[in-house]
Amino acid sequence: MKREFLLNIVFLLTANLLIKPFYLFGIDRTVQNTVSESEYGLYFALFNFTFLFQIVNDFGIQNYNNRNIAQHRHLLVKYFPNLIVLKGLLSILYLALVLGIGWWAGYTLPHFSLLLFIAFNQILFSLVLYLRSNVSGLGRYRLDSLLSVTDRLLLILICSVLLWGNLVPGPFRIEWFVWAQTASLSMTALIAMSIVARRLPRFRLRINPVFLRYLLRESAPYALSIFLMSAYYRLDGLMIEQLLPDGATEAGLYASAYRLYEAANMVGFLFAGLLLPLFSRMLKEQTSVAPLAYFSFKLITLSGLILLVGAGAYHTEIMELLYDSGSAYSGRILVFLCASYLAVSGTYVFGTLLVASNHTRQLNYVFGIGLGINLTLNLWLIPSLKAEGAAIATLATQVFIIAGELWVASRQLQLRVPLTTWGQLAGSLLLLLAAAQSLNYWAPFDWYWSFLAILGIGGVLALSFVWQSNSIIDFNRKNTA
């Protein structure tokens, strides 16, 4: 099982690292550089606005379904037809809510077409995640890995034609980017639906009010988690746009640094997607999750250390290389966000474990306090420090969240990260800092080679962690069957 876990995570990371970085830095970055800063800033703010209402769009169904299908795979036939109906009803309510509150918030008619398609894309994205939760819940992790990059691969192909194919007259518009997302997500949803449908002996949509109420009641704690996390993850971009006179421009600058934060979070999101069904299955079988949790925490925290040291050493150079608007100011935003990723990386392990072990209520207390901290700090810091203030608020929030999750895990699951793990991470940090300092002063080549060297040293450290680890549980092959 150690072998199976490592094979799955390596396959998952390889598939995503081949596709998603090219999308983020080849397509998304090019779109931002092509359209105006304020135009992309408006898109970023509208995207964050639609994300705030994910509690209605998803209502915790994805996590609830993933956990339950992983523990009781035979329930797919019973749950799937009802949950598809429920998601359709929630999607209609979500769309009405987004448009209604958007009108009340002051978004004008010219913005509504863009807002409508962004909201529809969120519905499609939520549908894809739900369909994938069935695939991973059934233990088909590698197939789920391929589905996780399908929409981005299709989006790369469509946007490449629009950006560089010279097939469409006129300058590139942000609306084209949104419509391309609609097309890629629609095709991915159809592919995922066909895969899940093949696992059903029969498929007929059902409307069972009693069972639908049961599903809503059971998924409610997960829905609250989605709402709280969406709020403290996405409020910053919206608040920048709303609180500042030049809000759209500042939101665009924040989005440029946030893109690298999202790229890093991709690794954590992949870990969580794989760990949730694994943890759920192991807990049902009463197998100790501690070795897997500690090993995963060590690996993903190391990724945060590597990014923080590398980006910290060359933050201005990175932003100036990637963006026409890159500067020392956006570089400082990047450093704070990379430090935030170091804090948030551990939540992808311990937050996922707490969801799998049905400690969502305690987790929601942590998220609720974190949201309060985030709101307070954003209101205080954004008017004076602008986008940099939002990045500081994000860092403070994520430090509190990981500290809270570690405390809940120690109280509820008696899991405490061993001192040896903390010692290995501290030693890795010192080694990376020493390497960065040496390369910065004595390397006879350009900074980007030094940056790649830091990443390479971090990769060697990760391989040494894998080689030294003797405590990962040997998962039965039936868990991946």
Task: Please provide a written account of the structure.
- The structure is a single chain.
- By secondary structure, the protein is mainly α.
- Helix content is 83%, strand content 0%.
- Helix 6 (109-137) runs parallel beside helix 8 (174-197), helix 10 packs parallel to helix 16 (387-412) and helix 14 (347-356) crosses helix 16 (387-412).
- The longest helix has 38 residues, at 247-284.
- The chain starts with a helix and ends in a 13-residue tail after the last helix.
Strand content: under 5%
Number of DSSP helical runs: 18
> Which shape, going by the Cα principal axes?
globular
Largest sheet: none
Mean pLDDT: 82
Number of strands: 0
Q: Sketch the topology as an H/E string, one letter per element.
A: HHHHHHHHHHHHHHHHHH
- Please bin the fraction of helical residues: over 70%
Q: What distance lies between the first and last C-alpha atoms, to the nearest angstrom?
A: 12 Å
Helical/strand content category: mainly alpha
Layout of helices and strands, plus pairs?
Elements: H1 2-34, H2 37-51, H3 54-57, H4 61-71, H5 76-105, H6 109-137, H7 141-164, H8 174-197, H9 209-243, H10 247-284, H11 290-313, H12 315-322, H13 328-345, H14 347-356, H15 360-385, H16 387-412, H17 419-442, H18 447-468
